[in-house]
Specification:
- By secondary structure, this protein is α/β, with parallel strands linked by helices.
- The chain has a single domain, classed as Divalent-metal-dependent TIM barrel enzymes (TIM Barrel), CATH 3.20.20.150.
- It is built from nine helices and eight strands.
- Strands 1-2-3-4-5-6-7-8 form an eight-stranded parallel barrel, surrounded by five helices.
- Strand 7, helix 8 and strand 8 form a beta-alpha-beta unit.
- The protein is globular, with a radius of gyration of 18 Å.
- The protein starts with a strand and ends with a helix.
Length: 271
């Protein structure tokens, strides 16, 4: 199997990671940058344009003031989207990834995203529970099949399948559903991978991938590949050849991207 491998960076990463990315791309370590656009960082765009590297753009999330699920945020959401669009236009990005927002209403998410009339838009599935003390809210929009379906149909957008998020959401659903006691061995594990497969009906345009430190947790952890509890054989069986996969693993160092190199080496087990 051959995949298009993506390095996740933020628009403000114009120092060490920028130079490392330039070097690693020249060495064939990855195929594109997924650039998370931090609000009010247009001054960095000229530097990213200097790289002769393909880009996918990720719009800001709630922590940087962008929340499509809240009607009262519509004006500021539009202003932030215009910055994101400028990044995508000038970097000739293939896709723009959006989160559904925190709390609020998924119908509002769908309405606002549709109002952008953005042909490159992808909606990304989320966990049900937002990270405590991280996102400023409790519940993520776009966590289940019905919410993603609504956004896709209303906004006429594509889809980014995040496996870690899907598994976290599956755990929230599992924990709130009655089950026989005791549970059959392996019942939860079987359910979470089957839940991931349900999202495949949306024909994802691309994928996000990390490992998880606790396969039963409702919270994402962004571990390096092979260091957690995920069954990657089952996951890679769901990903078609030549797919775009952004690896959203944590960065252990501010001085280099050696941990990302290790992730790419580990990936060869499945190629």
């Amino acid at each position: 199997m051959a995949y298009k491998r993506g390095l996740k960076l933020w628009s403000v990463n114009t120092d060490v990671y920028y130079e490392e990315a330039k070097k690693l791309y020249s060495q064939g370590v990855f195929d594109y940058i997924e650039l998370y656009v931090v609000s009010n960082s247009l001054d960095t765009l000229v530097k990213w344009k200097d790289l002769n590297i393909p880009f996918i753009i990720h719009a800001p999330h709630f922590a940087h003031g962008f929340n499509l699920a809240k009607k009262e945020k519509e004006e500021s959401n539009l202003a932030i989207y215009r910055e994101v669009k400028q990044f995508a236009d000038e970097l000739d990005a293939q896709f723009i990834i959006f989160h559904g927002g925190i709390d609020g209403d998924i119908k509002e998410t769908a309405r606002q995203l549709a109002s952008f009339n953005e042909p490159r838009a992808l909606i990304e599935n989320k966990p049900y529970k937002a990270l405590p003390n991280k996102m400023g809210g409790e519940f993520c929009r776009g966590y289940n099949i019905d919410e993603i379906k609504l956004v896709k149909e209303t906004a006429k957008c594509g889809f980014c399948l995040d496996f870690g998020h899907a598994i976290c959401a599956a755990n929230s659903i599992f924990d709130n559903t009655p089950h026989p006691n005791p549970l059959p061995q392996g019942a939860r594990e079987q359910m979470i991978y089957e839940y991931c497969k349900k999202f495949l009906k949306f024909e994802p345009n691309m994928y996000h991938l990390t490992d998880l430190n606790d396969i039963t947790s409702p919270y994402d952890s962004h571990l390096h590949l092979g260091t957690g509890e995920l069954d990657f054989k089952q996951i890679f069986d769901m990903i078609p050849d030549e797919s775009y996969i952004t690896f959203e693993t944590v960065k252990n160092s501010k001085e280099d991207l050696n941990d990302f190199i290790e992730d790419m080496e580990w990936l060869k087990n499945f190629q």
